[in-house]
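Q: Hi! Curious about what Protein kinase superfamily protein looks like structurally. Here's the sequence.
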Amino acid sequence: MKIDIMTMSFLSKMVSWVFPDYKFDRILIEFEKSMTMELDFTREAKNSERTASCFRKNSVVKVPYVFWQLTTREVLTMEFCYGHKVNDLDFLRKTDISPTKVAKALIELFGEMIFVHGFVHGDPHPGNILVSPEGHGKFSLVLLDHGIYRELDQKFRLDYCRLWKALILLDSNKILELGEQFGVGKYAKYFPVIFTGRTIESKSALGTQMSGEEQRRLKEDLNSLGMDDISSFMESLPPDFYVILRTDGLLRSILGNLGAPRHVRLLTYARCAIHGLEKQHKMESGAIRRMFLNVKTNVSYLRLRVIIEIAVLLAKANGAKQKVVNKLRQMLQETSQGFHRRM
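A: Let's find out. The predicted structure is below.
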């Protein structure tokens, strides 16, 4: 581990020498902390048990049981769980498991981790998430490697919930306001691009591609950024954001492999963000107030769901329209080729 940290430190200093405005110090500190935690197997065992407790009512999620009598700081002994990598499409086809349902279960798992529990698995690559044909339903997700977790700061978790609500509604004022809370200032305008794939001034429907004009303006905007801008943005991010960005990036890659529609992630994050916000209110309220908040949560979620479902319908309509155009174009080409052959 010391060699890995020394290597990272050397590379950080070299990059800082070539690009003085680009500081890697905070990333190096986070890397060192993560490596230290991952090599303490009693910590990993406790993380796995905490995660199992968080999802004890979720019949799809499986966390291997820890055998404490055979576990030390240097040795971790856990239950063997059968399964294949979550993005193993051949296995899913052979076992008649729907990739879309797997994707939905996966993003629900991590959405709840991030927005509701604030206790996040820091390395969700396909090798750490297995799909098993065993379980109460058609399949179960087996979550492995609990060495790196991030317990989100409570204020950060709530602000991140608010950010996602604002992203879905494209509430630019709220996004910029939360950008100040996160300490990124003017760079908050890039949050919609990073998380939802549209600009803060976008007129495109949620979950659809940006228009050509929006892409052109975004490209010009990004080309105007220098290394000092990138460095400033990265340095200003709260430490919790590094884990969020990495986790979300890995999940989006897996969802893409599984062929999940883009709206699956957006809809799930919207629902989890609302529940994450209301969870805090419920903890501070009486029984009657909690009943009212349950209704309010459902109404808020339905509002966001309507927005997303409309976006999905528009995307499907555009897709159907494009298919018709392509078909007509193909028919026209075939007719033209037949005409020329007869000539």
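A: A fun detail: The chain has a mean pLDDT of 82.
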